[in-house]
Amino acid sequence: MDKVAIVILNWNGAKMLAKYLPTVLNYSREEATVYVADNASTDDSLELLRSQFSEVHTIVLDKNWGFAEGYNKALKQVEAEYYLLLNSDIEVTHHWLTPLIEFMDVHPEVAACQPKLLSIYNKDMFEYAGASGGYLDRYGYPFCRGRIFDTVEEDNGQYDYPAEVLWATGAALMIRAKDYWDCGGLDGRFFAHNEEIDLCWRLRIRGRKVYCLPESYVYHVGGGTLPKSNPMKTFLNFRNNLTMLYKCLPDSELDHVMRWRWFLDYLAAWETLLLNRNVGDFCAIYRARRAFSQWRKDFEEDRRQIQSTRVKGVIAEQRPFSLLWQYYAKARKHFSDLP
After folding, report:
1. Which of 82, 140, 208, 313 could disulfide-pair with 203, CB 3.0 to 4.6 Å?
2. In terms of Cα–Cα distance, which of 243, 223, 217 is closest to 89?
């Protein structure tokens, strides 16, 4: 059994693999075994792996299962103490793994962790997808140390200390294999987006801890599969976020939060149409609300099971304020400005 298995899920990402896989091998092979799980790519990804990266273990999946179920299918074929889920568009750094492994070895109460995520285009800036560790506000809006909505901070070392967080980015997520399977892994029905937040929230409900360890840092391209402007990304984000809230919110908060989200989601839809003239996102939000209503009953048993495992009532990293109010009404654009 491997100590650490780095598992890169790939779909038509031959160019990313050719560019960034060498850094993973150069800076990780002494501490980890590297796997690439291919989600039925139609480009030359598999040929590239055979011809240029023969030392990489390849897992070939029979179709594009998406991010969430693709990882579930792949990780069932990997035996390791720690999984490290790594995007194909990540450039790692020298000794990036060591702080993660050492911290997890010393802290058995910690289920998962992430490195600091910086932008590959401007290496002094945080990267949107995870920055220096993730949180949620009361209404389910995610934010990070270093990123709130579209405001991304420059990294001046202001968050260079380990911090307990609500969620760690799926772009570079180390997790104990036992914890991964004990809580059911990623929710494959999500396909992509919010799946790592959902997973980490379920871990936190169980009393397990999640950390960001900025001593380790990597660089991320971001948006390689679905650009931010793609309406499908909007649809998945809204549908999956609502589903995650339904699964994970405690009974005392569920009705209140869902009523507010009904209002806030439709407000967001009309804002995108009237102010941004974005018909695609307007329709995507409406479709997401309808899709959530249609499949909500499919998650009733999930909700019962998750709530039955609850050992944490209040999770401090789910902040009790409205991020929309803080950001737009009070102009608090940086993590350090928040209450």
Report:
1. 208
2. 223
CA dist 337 and 339 (Å) reads 7
pLDDT at 116 over 60: yes
Question: What is the enclosing helix (H) or strand (E) of 34?
Answer: strand 33-38
Work out the average pLDDT over 182-208: 97
pLDDT tier at 227, thresholds 50, 70, 90 = low
Which residues are CB-neighbours of 210 under 8 A, at least 6 positions away? 110, 111, 112, 113, 164, 165, 166, 167, 168, 200, 203, 204
Distance separating alpha carbons of residues 58 and 230, to the nearest angstrom: 30
Average pLDDT over residues 88-116: 98
- Contact indicator for 310, 204 with CB cutoff of 8 Å: no
Amino acid, single-letter form, for residue 160: D
C-alpha dist (Å) from residue 21 to 45, 52, 160, 167: 12, 10, 26, 25
H/E segment holding residue 306: helix 300-308
Give, for 280, the enclosing helix (H) or strand (E).
helix 279-295
pLDDT digits (tens, 9 = 90+) for 246-301: 999 999 999 999 999 999 999 999 999 999 899 999 999 999 999 999 999 999 99
Beta bridge partners of 175: 83, 112
27-70: pLDDT as tens digits: 998 999 999 999 999 999 999 999 999 999 999 999 999 999 99
Q: In sequence order, what are the beta bridge partners of 151?
A: 148
Bridge partners for 115 per DSSP: 213
The pLDDT assigned to 313 comes to: 79
Residue 57: alpha-carbon gap to chain centroid: 24
Tell which residue, 305, 70, 299, has the closest CA to residue 202: 305
Position of tokens 């939000």?
285
